[in-house]
């Protein structure tokens, strides 16, 4: 069952220029991670500090392995650019239920 993960981010005011660039660099490793089907980044049209990374994964297990890697040896330092902790929400396709 495929999984769509939404990583909701808010960049700190002093990182509105370098934060999104850093995110795009960081996502190169995400896209290369086993089980990643793709990542799209969208920005709120009224609030440029609000960004969502839309990630597609082959399975919940692949996504879990990625999150564990990012929490350990694959730590990205993205938190240094954010105004607060990101929010992660994961979904499955209705057809997979």
Automatic annotation (TrEMBL):
Keywords: Monooxygenase, Oxidoreductase
Domain ABM: 3-91
Record-linked InterPro entries: ABM_dom, Dimeric_a/b-barrel
GO MF, any single term: monooxygenase activity
Domain of life where this protein originates: Bacteria
Protein name listed in UniProt: Quinol monooxygenase YgiN
Native species: Leifsonia soli
């Amino acid at each position: 069952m495929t999984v769509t993960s939404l990583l909701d981010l808010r960049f700190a005011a002093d990182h509105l220029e370098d934060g999104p660039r850093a995110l795009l660099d960081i996502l190169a490793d995400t896209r290369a991670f086993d089980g990643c089907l793709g990542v799209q980044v969208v920005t709120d049209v009224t609030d440029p500090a609000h960004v969502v990374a839309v990630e597609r994964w082959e399975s919940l297990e692949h996504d879990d392995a990625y999150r564990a890697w990012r929490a350990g040896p694959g730590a990205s330092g993205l938190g240094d650019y954010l105004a607060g902790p990101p929010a992660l929400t994961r979904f499955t396709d209705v057809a997979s239920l």
